Amino acid sequence: MNIKRLLVSQPKPTSEKSPYFDLAEKYGVEIEFRPFIKVEPLSSKEFRQQRISILDYSAVVFTARTGIDHFFRLCEELRVTIPETMKYFCISESIAVYLQKYIVYRKRKIFFGASGKLDDLVTIIAKHPKEKYLVPVSDVHKDDLKLKLEAKKIDFTEAVMYRTVSNDFKADESFDYDMLVFFSPAGISSLLKNFPNFNQKDIRIGCFGPTTAKAVKDAGLRLDVEAPTPEAPSMTAALEQYLKKESGK
Q1: CA pair distance 85, 83, nearest whole angstrom
Q2: Which residues is 205 bridged to in the sheet?
Q3: pLDDT tens digits for 200-243?
Q4: Closest by alpha carbon to 86, among 78, 68, 94?
Q5: Is residue 160 domain-shared with residue 44, that is, in the same domain?
Q6: CATH of the domain at 47
Q7: In what order do the strands lie in the sheet with 156-166?
Q8: Where is each Tetrapyrrole biosynthesis uroporphyrinogen III synthase domain found (predicted)?
């Protein structure tokens, strides 16, 4: 099999039971975890320039743990005390449960989608049309949620609370991978920023999500492995299929 070293553009899993480690052992590949992007906080001074008052809103929408962390960080820096009446709308139960890090879960009004998809989240939000929603986002983000909320005529404001930046490679770092795996268009942008003369040649590229796939193709690169699909709902399942085919196992 030609694939010996594989770079996954995400942080290394904290659990030893990650399916990535199973793939490495089963197919004899070396998997390295290295995020191509990183998140930096927006300062309270920068946030104030948006002229957004958090207490003007009756509900907050979270699609990721990162948004939760930076929302409560900014509230602390701005000395904003969130009232117990604040409602929280989360894209999934796991995101909702993460709120326990900052609030007493059972005493708050928390709503979440059953499937983890935007459509479910928006359906729940639409059942509470009188709320005024605040949506924490990165400076670089997709407009999917915005467009769906606008279509439902929801009263909401996007608030930039953190920024996504390229996680630069050092000039003397080796980059000898047989396969690269990406999870966001920002990861593709970071690859091209770090390696402006990148020549794909025999390097395989895998990605998760249609927007990332589009970014790969728009960059003129060849996409070899894509998830999710009906046969491979996760990135590891797609990699398993590809490695199995390559190895003949």
Answers
A1: 5
A2: 180
A3: 999 999 999 888 999 999 999 999 999 988 899 899 999 999 99
A4: 68
A5: yes
A6: 3.40.50.10090
A7: 37-41, 156-166, 133-138, 59-62, 87-90, 109-112
A8: 23-236
